[in-house]
Amino acid sequence: MMTHRDALEVLAARRGDRVVVTTMGSVAVWPQLSDSPLDFHYLPSSMGQGVPLGLGLCLARPGRGVVVLVGDGGLLMNLGCLVTAAQFPVPLHILLIDNALYEVTGGQPVPNAGRTDFAALARGSGIERVYACGSRGAWEAVADEALAGDGPVFVWLKVRGEVGKPTPAAPRPMAEQIARLRAALGSF
């Protein structure tokens, strides 16, 4: 089974000039792979808001691709975001990092871990382009196609969970991240 880092390494090799919004566990991994002004580490106390933030960026900057890295626990806390995102033909790429754990809050199992069909949930929400990958090789095989064109696109990446990881901290204060992203996108 692929690791969280494996999944993000595949993205890092193909991200292009897309904004990458990281949430929860991805906040600890992505800064090891990228330090672009287009990286935004969204680690608020409210889980499940990464996809709405990414959708907002797509709508504010038409044509600008956005990749949101969301965990299974965070997505379950705001499944309605998929239905909302499905309404808009924008280059929003939702990458679900499914480790079956609330990894950064103590490693508790996510309800119905291993039984929830996230691909079916995405399709049922109206997202037409849906991919499911359980290995790095499978993800590498579809990554170029999945990250191309408009979306929204949903990619379910099943990764090995790790218990005992500390809650990550963003590499920069929120105000600095916002300023860097605004400058990179042009003020709005």
Core attributes:
188 residues, six-stranded parallel β-sheet
Report what the structure shows.
The radius of gyration is 15 Å and the shape is globular. With 188 residues, the protein is α/β, with parallel strands linked by helices. The chain has helices spanning 4-12, 26-29, 50-60, 72-76, 80-85, 118-124, 136-146, 174-185, and strands spanning 19-23, 39-42, 66-71, 92-98, 101-102, 108-109, 129-133, 153-158. A six-stranded parallel beta sheet has the order 2-1-3-4-8-7, with helices on both faces. It has a two-stranded antiparallel sheet with strand order 5-6. The protein contains eight helices and eight strands; from the N terminus they run H-E-H-E-H-E-H-H-E-E-E-H-E-H-E-H. The model has no long low-confidence stretch (mean pLDDT 92). 35% of the residues lie in helices and 20% in strands. Strand 1, helix 2 (26-29) and strand 2 form a beta-alpha-beta unit. The N and C termini lie far apart (41 Å).
Describe this structure in a few short sentences:
By secondary structure, the chain is α/β, with parallel strands linked by helices. The protein has helices at residues 4-12, 26-29, 50-60, 72-76, 80-85, 118-124, 136-146, 174-185, and strands at residues 19-23, 39-42, 66-71, 92-98, 101-102, 108-109, 129-133, 153-158.
Topology summary:
Layout (H helix, E strand, L loop, with lengths): L3 H9 L6 E5 L2 H4 L9 E4 L7 H11 L5 E6 H5 L3 H6 L6 E7 L2 E2 L5 E2 L8 H7 L4 E5 L2 H11 L6 E6 L15 H12 L3
Parallel strand pairs: 1-2, 1-3, 3-4, 4-8, 7-8
Antiparallel strand pairs: 5-6
